[in-house]
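Lab channel / #folding
Pinned by the channel admin:
"Please post every new chain as: sequence first, then the structure tokens as a reply. Keep commentary short and put observations after the output so the thread stays searchable."

First post following the new format, from NK:
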Amino acid sequence: MRPADPALAPFAGRTCLVTGGLGFIGSNVVHALVAAGAHVRVVDALVPEHGGDRRNLDGIADQVGITVASVGDAAAVRPALDGVEFVFNVAGQVSHLESMSDPLRDLELNARSHLAFLEQLRHERPEATVVHTSTRQVYGRPRYLPVDEDHPTAPVDVNGVDKLAGEQFHLLYHAVHELRISALRLTNVYGPRQNLAKDGLGFLPVFVRRALAGETISLYGDGSQLRDCLHVDDVVRGLALAALSPDAPGEVFNLGHPEPLTLADIARLTIAAAGTASGVVNVPWPADHVRIDIGSFHGDFSKAKRILGWEPHVGFVAGVDDAVRYYRAHAWAVPPRPEPTA
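Reply from TO:
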């Protein structure tokens, strides 16, 4: 277990619910809250394609109440809400390509189920403080850089539309029903407990998986697109600060990084951290990818710095080293290399 983050000290003895708490970001939130002395409950649907895994809570599972259910399942979720003071609503489907191939399922997982969850919160725990994780994908193709919260929202895929709908439902329930809710728009998150086996969960886990295995990393186009990568520890601290800030409810915040990197540089630094003979090759854009590509992106997080006192602490070199160390220490989290064919 990592040392307790001082930013989470106020959660000691408090009752917290983490939705999606068996997945990547959610499980890191759970570990941090347990280390801080919080009473933690988890609701997670354990959708096979999404990367949730009970082993993400190894070492602390006996200290966490776990409910396997969709956040929209009122009967299953109701006991987990009893007495809850803070809700970190991290559950959701993140694959852009999957949202395009199965749009109704994405709508269910990222919008309808969250509306049902909000209705339950409104009736049963209206006094709870809620932080919802949204995504920079709601902006679509940037019209200017860095992107601030005033940038127009024009998602380029079903996932972005549904995540925006889920975010706006949360903010509406603050405005109309006076629930204490804020939303964080996250950029490309990476770090320990990220699922490496599923190609649709972002480019960073693919890069890490291939680098660890010494396999070639394929870059679409020339690899010059910019991304700001955010270590999961910085995300956890952002969630905590948003939950604790009296000025956060009703607001949406970008969480980003001040050092955007090209995809080519991200690949090179990931390979260096892995220390393998992996290489990089440029390949043409697949048609299904290029239609929903957003180009370069990096976000302006000055609002989060001003109101929440948040800024990222982890640079990419240190962060990817941390991720590599985690996967080398947890062999179960690294998918096996395919057997060579004759």
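NK: The radius of gyration is 19 Å.
TO: also worth noting, The chain has two domains: 12-192+231-256, 199-224+260-298+314-333.
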